[in-house]
Amino acid sequence: MTKENSISHSAGISRRTFLQVTGAGLVTATALGVSGLRAKAEAYGKFTWISPRGTLEVLDDYPYWAAKKAGYFGDLDTDMQPGPSDGTATVKFVDVGQADMGFPSPGVFSFAIQNGMKLKSVFHMGARDTFSMAFRKGEGTNDLKTLEGKTILLGSAAWQSITDPLLAAQGVDIKKVKYVEAGWPTWGTALAGGQGDAALSWEGLRAEWIAKGLDFEYWLGVQNSKLPANTFVVRTADLEDPDRKAFLEKYLRGWAMGLEFGYQNPRAAVEAVFEQFPTLAKNLGPELGTTSILQQINVFRGDMDKRGGWGSHDMASWQGFFDEIHKIGQITNPVKAEDVCTNDLIGPANDFDKAKVKADADGYKLSEGFAALDVEKIKAHLFDSAVK
């Protein structure tokens, strides 16, 4: 997640075309030039995935780091970018060719659709709704309608596209809710400090907040919401190019293998991330790191018995989301889920040797701190902070 309405850009993207937003919400390239834009006919060079949160120093992307460490991407030239400080940058940069794949929430994906961006969801990471409402201890509720007349804190104004459909689906009159942009990464601290009545959160972040001394209780989307969560999107035109489509299948196979590895050995997946980001390792430590990843595995895996594999879209869930946001005016025209989401790449992405991945995961030698953890005990207390 990132802070909206800023057009500053990170060092990792500064060499590329600088973007602006028009009054209609569309992205344009400035006079800095368009030499960085890739021609449609050009094969992928370095394949760039862009974060929705302005940072990579989180556990959310553990499948990539686990897959990279294990060599599951093979000879593909892959790159991860944190993105600039704009809540909708993850779709804007893909749209204009500054990145090849983004990871938007459904709400931000709807922003892309509303603004005519020709993007398609190809790999649905969030099989369960990752989003939640955080409350100060003793102030939580399982009836979100009680938030009418109250104030909800967001890290970015762009996140209203997440909270509005989440609340509306629970029967809340969203016109009666006030939002305050409390900034990234300070909106949780603002809630703890007595500002607002609730704050948007998500799985994985709950554990990270505990590491920062932010101890809340939660209404959890994973337990109460039928809406989808974040997904991987690409340019629709790339799916019409046989070479690019074949590349995407191979790239997504690496992610699927990373997801399987993490499911089989979550502690090893945390170690892969911690090796990449020592500061994150220091801040979280093995137990909270494992807690965070287990929360996310629950979201990413969903009910695998009813899915077509890692990344498979539940079209009914997506259609319910699009119907809800059309009803509340977040999009002006109805959207058919099958028009903007596809499972065409799911079969190839999941076509890997699961026994080998399991053997890799089982054979990983954990460091002492991780080996000492009782994973089943952590799982048993994964939802202790849910509102009772």
Automatic annotation (TrEMBL):
Domain SsuA/THI5-like: 63-267
InterPro entries found in the cross-reference section: NMT1/THI5 (IPR027939), SsuA/THI5 (IPR015168), TAT_signal (IPR006311)
Alphabetical list of Pfam families matching this protein: NMT1 (PF09084)
Subunit structure: Homodimer.
Pathway per the UniProt entry: Cofactor biosynthesis; thiamine diphosphate biosynthesis
Membrane-spanning intervals of the chain: none
Coiled-coil region: none
GO biological process: thiamine biosynthetic process
PANTHER family, sorted: 4-AMINO-5-HYDROXYMETHYL-2-METHYLPYRIMIDINE PHOSPHATE SYNTHASE THI11-RELATED (PTHR31528:SF1)
Highest taxon of source: Bacteria
Family indicated by similarity: Belongs to the NMT1/THI5 family.
Catalysed reactions, as listed in the record: N(6)-(pyridoxal phosphate)-L-lysyl-[4-amino-5-hydroxymethyl-2-methylpyrimidine phosphate synthase] + L-histidyl-[4-amino-5-hydroxymethyl-2-methylpyrimidine phosphate synthase] + 2 Fe(3+) + 4 H2O = L-lysyl-[4-amino-5-hydroxymethyl-2-methylpyrimidine phosphate synthase] + (2S)-2-amino-5-hydroxy-4-oxopentanoyl-[4-amino-5-hydroxymethyl-2-methylpyrimidine phosphate synthase] + 4-amino-2-methyl-5-(phosphooxymethyl)pyrimidine + 3-oxopropanoate + 2 Fe(2+) + 2 H(+)
Organism for this UniProt entry: Mesorhizobium helmanticense
GO terms, molecular function: metal ion binding; transferase activity
Function: Responsible for the formation of the pyrimidine heterocycle in the thiamine biosynthesis pathway. Catalyzes the formation of hydroxymethylpyrimidine phosphate (HMP-P) from histidine and pyridoxal phosphate (PLP). The protein uses PLP and the active site histidine to form HMP-P, generating an inactive enzyme. The enzyme can only undergo a single turnover, which suggests it is a suicide enzyme.
Name of the protein: Thiamine pyrimidine synthase
Keywords tagged on the record: Iron, Metal-binding, Pyridoxal phosphate, Thiamine biosynthesis, Transferase
